[in-house]
Amino acid sequence: MTGFFxxxxxxxxxxxxxxxxxxxxxxxxxxxxxxxGRAVLPVLEAGARSLPIMAVLFLPILxxxxxxxxxxxxxxxxIDAHRAPYLNMPFFLIRAAFYFIFWVGVSSYLIGLRxxxxxxxxxxxxxxxxxxSAPSLVLxxxxxxxxxxxxxxxxxxxxxxxxxxxxxxxxxxxxxxxxAALWWRKRQETAAPMQEADFPISRDxxxxxxxxxxxxxxISLSQFLIIWSANxxxxxxxxxxxxxxxxxxxxxxxxxxxxxxPFLALLSGKTKRSPVMLSRVxxxxxxxxxxxxxxIVMPSVREGGVLPAATDVLTFAGIGIIWLVGFVRALxxxxxxxxxxxxxxxxxxxx
Amino acid sequence: MSHSSHASQPTHGADRELxxxxxxxxxxxxxxxxxxxxxxxxxxxxxAVFALAFLLLNGMMLTITYLLYRGVGIWGINQPAGWGFxxxxxxxxxxxxxxxxxxxxxxxLMRQQWRTSINRFAEAMTLFAVACAGLYPxxxxxxxxxxxxxxxxxxxxxMWPQFRSPLIWDVFAVSTYxxxxxxxxxxxxxxxxxxxxxxxxxxxxxxxxxIGALGWRxxxxxxxxxxxxxxxxxxxxTPLVLSVHSIVSFDFAVSVLPGWHTTVFPPYFVAGxxxxxxxxxxxxxxxxxAWYGLKDFITDKHLDWMAKIMLATGLIVVYGYVMEMxxxxxxxNPYEGYLIKNRxxxxxxxxxWGLLICNGVVPQVLWSPRWRASVPVLFAVSxxxxxxxxxxxxxxxxxxxxxxxxxxxxxxxxxxxxxxxMFIGTxxxxxxxxxxxIRFLPMISIFEMRDLVLRLRGHxxxxxxxxxxxxxxxPV
Lengths: 351, 476
Description:
The complex is a heterodimer. Chain A has one domain. Helices cover 80% and strands 0% of the residues of chain A. Chain A is built from 14 helices and no strands. Chain A has helices spanning 2-32, 35-49, 51-69, 78-83, 89-120, 124-151, 164-190, 199-230, 233-241, 247-267, 269-273, 275-301, 310-332, 339-345. The N and C termini of chain A lie far apart (67 Å). Chain B is mainly α. Chain B has one domain (13-153, 172-457). Chain B has helices spanning 25-37, 44-70, 85-109, 119-140, 166-199, 203-212, 220-253, 265-291, 300-330, 334-345, 349-361, 369-372, 375-396, 398-401, 417-440, 446-457. The longest helix of chain B is centred in the middle third of the chain and has 34 residues, at 166-199. Chain B is globular and about 75 Å long. Chain A binds chain B through residues 78-79, 82-83, 86, 134-135, 138, 141-142, 145, 149, 158, 160-166, 218-219, 222-223, 225-227, 229-230, 232, 234, 267, 269, 345-351, and chain B through 10-13, 16, 164, 242, 246, 250, 253-256, 261-267, 315, 319, 322-324, 327, 330-333, 367, 455-460, 474, 476.
């Protein structure tokens, strides 16, 4: 069964990270209220709406998979005993419940506020969204950090890294911007004909993709360099596990695929101005994100080579279909974007 | 002038608060250039601060002279605490510089209007802070006259630096940072130096500003090249905001010492740098705008935004503390665990709790818009943050070093009078240079303020002098 739950964890973490990335950007947007955020608000809300489904999909791991995935469940050595006050089943469940209640709660509250704002035309509600989002963003980063420590990092027996939370938060944001860029192209094709005012949105999304791509590379490199330089046995296990059986090739592919190619492509203003070109880069980045999560999760939960097993593909597709159905339904029922609100609130200063 | 965005692009409603009063191109120019051109108009506080800074600077000269005569033994460093004030203050100063680069480069690329009135003196602050920072490792080498050995040049000694050491990356990172910051600052000054050249009555001033202005005539071609160069320098500076302090953090993180070796260090150091930098910008901006009557340009809106950035970066720093403490425990490593305990209850515990109060607790008042709007509160918080960030480096450096793995190699670190002399001396150097700068160079970018006038008021305002309309360069 180990094989199955390893695959399941990888698939679940990938799709969950899309939802969390959308929630993170949704919170961030309320603080800046930038044009790009107003334009892609529906897609961020729809992504965050899949969180309850993801909570339900965590149940199989909790009920059947814990023993297979997490070595601390069996206890054993001194470090397991030391960590037991934190890593024990009841507290693990309480934390998981808390994370999901917070994520689902804050996303539905924000979406609800915007709905009320639409209905009543009460502009003060936008300020309330901002006021809620600022402290929520702080709690969001903390909850994601501890959730990923619980669910992914603790699959490694003794390993730990203090940058891990930031690594995931950045990767999730990268995925979410990529989805937003894909959706923006689709919207451009189906909705009203492209207007000049739409060009900056595409460019801003491209710049965000570029920024998060660089940020991801910066964090990945920092973690590697610090662990490699100190060369402590308790820390190098993470990279040693990923340096054979083809995992090294996958790691190299990530450097080229998730950093160099998108970095070079996004440097050019031409790529960023065209929603079509941008969506291609975004699609590529999403594919690399799958590989990235696979590279992070799988070597810890399954012995063996880099080639995916049938269960990997099946669970990925299975959870993916459920996530996508939820996402598309949420998108259909979503409130329109706020681009029109923006123009009304902001009279041009001069011709 | 519009290198920050399209002139046709509407400005945000909030941007209207970036300039107060009935200003047109002429009054903006008069007010800023007047500080430099009217040398009689300097307020009393200028002389007071300058005199004090000059005194402290002389104290620093004395300290350095004695240091070169006797050697670094006059400092409190010892075994096991081989790094003390020399590195604490290096990291503290270099961190302060980062806000200047963030404001001038990153906010430019992000097309943020509010950088306009604070970028020039924030950049000057960067230069002077880096100059103060550079002194410490230079003198800590013990033989600064052979500091050029740090550079890899072919030599008959057959000696090369250790390229795997972040200390040598620091040499490159900091010298690149200094060079690019100086260039960026100077290039931004050129059009303003031309304005001063044209307005100065004093012949010497005219000649000196004329040399600095590099023959600037404000032609369309000049503006077009200026914008291209300025954007390129902004692009070059942007990675420096991250790289310099990341490399400084590697100085510690690549070791195997608990308290130093932790993977979150690079982003946590960068956030801390920006945090301390904005605190220093506020510390300088609040009194200077009052003394020189510049509240129309450096408005309460600017202070509000700087306070928000300080709050955000401060929260990232606190996140770093949480991660350090949690994983120090989670690791199950007895040395990591002891380090946390030693910080909380060891001989330097008051400094640790002081750090948490200064960096973690006090700045939380900035959540409240009412407190943020209070200038005295903001000024006090910015001073507290400066102290907090200094304490943070004290906690990281000597407190991690002083209790080595073996209790037989434990010791204490106590800074000597000469340590304090050097630290207070660099404060003197910093304020000495800063106050010379605000007296002899335009501390706010004149032409960018004119651009702001155009952007906020359009062509309605009566223009007393022709302004140059730039060609538009697309930001990257």
